[in-house]
Amino acid sequence: MEKTIKVLHTEWSDGWGGQEIRILNEMLAVRKRGVKTFLACRENARIREKALEQGIPVFTLPFRGNTDLKTLFGLMRIIRREKIDIVNTHSGKDTWVGGLAAKLTGRKFIRTRHLSNPINPSRLNFINEIADFIITTGSGVREDLIRNNRIRPDRIASVPTGVDADLFDPSRYDRDVERQRLGISEDEIAIGALGVIRRVKRHEDFIRAAEILNRKHDRLRFFIAGDGPIRKDLEKLIGELRLDNFKILGHIEQPAGYLSALDIFVNSSANEGVPQAVIQALMMRKAVVATDAGSTSDLHEGNFLLVDPLAPERLAEGIEALILHREKREEYGRKSREPMLRDFSDDTMGERIVEIYRKVLQ
């Protein structure tokens, strides 16, 4: 009988966005395949409550910094007591203490890199080099780490974030009902974004693109579903530009229902792994305009529009192409879901992760 693999995930972040959602979904996906998962995080972390809701054992530690000895020794105690096989770290601060705790207890150390921004290549920043394996969320991130951070190609793999294909299934939702909830008329074109409101997501570019489009077109509605630290800044910008047809909805519990109401989905980010919101929108057969940031192009098979990042004018041009041509929106919708089912479902992610666990433990 095969021994049950035990994996302790660590996460420093207190937020609830794409990275934290990926971690939770990954733990659930491998649990379905017989892996026992644990989480170590900070007391007030949103992922803590979400993990507890799913019956995942959670340990809280300070995670005050790269050399936080209280957290380091706490992790070592947990690893020994729970007989952990693999420590899987996620953010910068928990990667240092989690990786060192794994090495000091003789366990395997996997680091997951979610973002596409460069990692300091200094020899002093050695924590990634001592990992037994690195998982990235996009192929571009993998190539950068090999090229710039001395990571051996056989010790790093891209495993894109998986999405629940049953939850993000357009046949489960009534588009007319979802549009009524948002007050969208049938003759209006609904254009929206989804995600945590952070600087890196460049929602301000989406807002400025909306201002450009409003000069040319009537009957447009714009939405951002999500919340975050710069929400008030964005609401101020919306007011300054007098965009009466632009609304920030805040956090929503049913993103698939929201997506079903849209005609066009927009991702304006300047830095990504593989963006979950774009996968979700494509799963929902939406016409998508996304910036070519990070590993977003990993999703591209002629099934949506890619435009330059940090350029509201280019974003507006892409959206306008879909406003003007309904048949193009419908064509993208027909093409969008199948590539996601093949390569970006949570089942595919779970299978690939478990294969890596087994490889590392050989």
Structure description:
The chain has 13 helices and 13 strands. β6 (133-136), α5 (139-148) and β7 (156-158) form a beta-alpha-beta unit. The protein is of the alpha/beta class. The longest helix is centred in the C-terminal third of the chain and has 18 residues, at 326-343. α1 (18-31) packs across α13 (346-361), α7 packs across α11 (312-324) and α11 (312-324) packs across α12. It is elongated, with a radius of gyration of 21 Å. The protein folds into 2 domains: 6-162 and 345-361, 3-Layer(aba) Sandwich (Rossmann fold), CATH 3.40.50; 170-343, 3-Layer(aba) Sandwich (Rossmann fold), CATH 3.40.50.2000. Strands 3-2-1-4-5-6-7 form a 7-stranded parallel β-sheet, with helices on both faces. It has a 6-stranded parallel β-sheet with strand order 10-9-8-11-12-13, with helices on both faces.
| Widest β-sheet, arrangement of strands | 3-2-1-4-5-6-7
Tell me the overall shape.
elongated
Structural class: alpha/beta
Radius of gyration: 21 Å
> What is the straight-line distance between the termini?
16 Å
Measured as a percent range, the helix fraction is: 40-55%
CATH topology of the largest domain: Rossmann fold
Number of helices: 13
Give the DSSP E fraction (strand runs of 2 or more residues).
15-25%
Oligomer: single chain
- Tell me the domain tally: 2
Mean pLDDT: 95
What is the name of the CATH superfamily of the largest domain? Glycogen Phosphorylase B
Largest sheet, strands/sense/barrel: 7 strands, parallel
CATH architecture of the largest domain: 3-Layer(aba) Sandwich
Name of the CATH class of the largest domain: Alpha Beta
Q: Can you write the helix and strand succession as a string?
A: EHEHEHEHEEHEHEHEHEHEHEEHHH
Pick out the low-confidence regions.
none
Number of strands: 13
